[in-house]
Automatic annotation (TrEMBL):
Compositional bias segments (type: Low complexity): 17-26, 337-348
Source domain of life: Eukaryota
Coiled coil: 57-91
Lineage of producing organism: Eukaryota, Fungi, Fungi incertae sedis, Mucoromycota, Glomeromycotina
Protein name: Uncharacterized protein
Region (Disordered): 15-53, 285-361
Natural source organism: Diversispora epigaea
Biased composition range(s): Acidic residues: 292-310
Amino acid sequence: MPRAERNRNLFASAIAGSTSSGSTTSRRTRLGTNPSEPYLVEEERATTTTRTETNSINRLIRKFELFEKKMDSLLNDNADIKKRLKNIELLTEINNDPDFSKDVINRVAKNIFKANIFPSTKDLVDETEHVIRKNFPDISESMDSRHHSKLFKRIKAKLLEKLRGMRGGIASRVKSAIFEIFGESQLPRIDFQSSPAEINSWKSDQRVLHAYRKLFDVFSEDRTYVQVILERVWKSKKRISNMHIAWGVAIAQLFLNPDVKGIMISENLLKKQIKINFRKLQQKRPLRPEEGELDAEETSEEESEEEEEEGKSPKRRKTSRGHVPSSGRAPSPGRVSPPLTSPSRLLPEFFDNEGEGRQRA
């Protein structure tokens, strides 16, 4: 029984006792006598006294209930203060613990890299919250949206740097595998610290053009050069995703394409080629490049942006953007290679258990 109700019952019992006592006195006064004016006055006084006592008791009950409410409020405030102090202590420890931030960054980068090579900020925010909830439940309970936002802002720069490093590592492995597979007799080496003139000279070498044209030719056992290259890059994986296949092939294509200037591939150009390759994989089409496909992808993106701009403004604004020319050369007339979508360990669309990425809605 609640404390307030128990106290109210006690006071009610006391009032009942006082009223009963007053009634007995009245009856004793009446015995053997007739009603008289003095008796009526006495009874009225008794009733007035009882009413006054009742009002006083009710006032005491109300005051006591108010006191109880204030005490409960103070106790709740005290518990809330203790909880906040604990949260502050925990979050301060997190903010001052570089190992925690490093652990979160590594987990987020590893998880998201399995499914998304170029994640958006929202992807990174969602994955960061997921990692904390799953791996640090005690900390997650003490964090609200503001804490998550502050933590992400603090780790964002290092997280992006980590992802760039992971992409750069794969790109370096693809380029190294290209030189290993073709050999120096078919493809001359190039120092990545070479001058622009030396890089342009290397790109103009006919052997580079021949290597570019042979990427989708058969190397051995019905496996193309590019398949063998990707197997070297991801040799520790039994299966890799279609997205990573599209990415690895795009690096090889743009690195050897004589019409793509330089050997450091821009992110925008790489994204376009990945998009083209991934679409072909989904449609089970060969990945051999088609003439003008990069130009077509660039034009398609420009039209989409202009359509969006039309929806925002009554006037259509056009932007001038440079186009990357396609090779303008027909594929090599040699042996017809099987499409990269033929059965092989590189082709399943999703990772195996070791590398399976968390699927997003």
